[in-house]
């Protein structure tokens, strides 16, 4: 077993309503289990998960407990609410080793009856002025994306409406548009934004309201422009969100929800409740990104997912076994994550 710390720079900062993401620091874990070496990644994100230092100590303790008492004991100590990224790192390594030992790709280890070659993905377009936003949208469409997610909420609603309208006019009706407000709006702003986005055929807005405003989200949900919850899941259980009809779409970030196993369970529950799961990363390294691809691959007919985030990074932990081509991401079919541990490192 080992833990290596890494820091990955983004090629350009991802500008959002809650500030830019410029680098991603995290931990790469190796765990020996059933004669295999499993790979795991814990890449905490401030505001979404535990801190890097808390993650480091929790993951270190989990790996030690796993060696001395077994992995069931280690899992018991890894509370999602306290250390989702550490739980993600450990469980990914454990599942990678298990799936390798079984000779199946991770997504089939999550759901043995599944066969899936590729998963549709959205392009992620950060906040920028209208002309820059249009340019990025056009580039994504030229590369084969037919679903774009635009960050909004960093400007007045009227300015965002102008940006989204400019993109709609540039790309035409055949492209799905989504927006992500990252909790920036008041109820009044959210109502007016969704009203204006309707005629522009925006499929849904992620987190139009603060994470805790479940009543407000429930009021907005179910309309022509859907409501997706993301930040809400940091502090609220999925059962509560579903119970209160506070979402049309659930954003499933394995790094925030405790790992690929928990994320898959949550996605399945959402689907069963009529809420569409969309699997995304927190702009992770290749190990966590690939784990998220397997989670998406385990969901039948999954909606386009926010997994095309490799291109936001200037550097990575190793070769990418799940490249994006023509708006879809390839699902690795070799055992486990489908990565060679000897090719991965900080
Ligand atoms: O969903 C995507 O397209 C990419 C992921 C993304 O937007 C994101 C990345 C890091 C942190 C938060 C978010 C978010 O969805 O709010
Ligand atoms: Mg979001």
UniProtKB/TrEMBL annotation:
Molecular-function GO terms, alphabetical: magnesium ion binding; O-succinylbenzoate synthase activity
Essential cofactor(s): a divalent metal cation
Active site (UniProt): 151 (proton donor), 253 (proton acceptor)
Binding-site residues, Mg(2+): 180, 206, 230
Pathway linked to the protein: Quinol/quinone metabolism; 1,4-dihydroxy-2-naphthoate biosynthesis; 1,4-dihydroxy-2-naphthoate from chorismate: step 4/7; Quinol/quinone metabolism; menaquinone biosynthesis
Catalytic activity, EC: 4.2.1.113
Renumbered residue ranges of the record's region Disordered: 316-346
Similarity field: Belongs to the mandelate racemase/muconate lactonizing enzyme family. MenC type 1 subfamily.
PANTHER family: O-SUCCINYLBENZOATE SYNTHASE, O-SUCCINYLBENZOATE SYNTHASE-RELATED
Protein's recorded name: o-succinylbenzoate synthase
Organism: Halomicrobium zhouii
Taxonomic lineage from the root: Archaea, Methanobacteriati, Methanobacteriota, Stenosarchaea group, Halobacteria
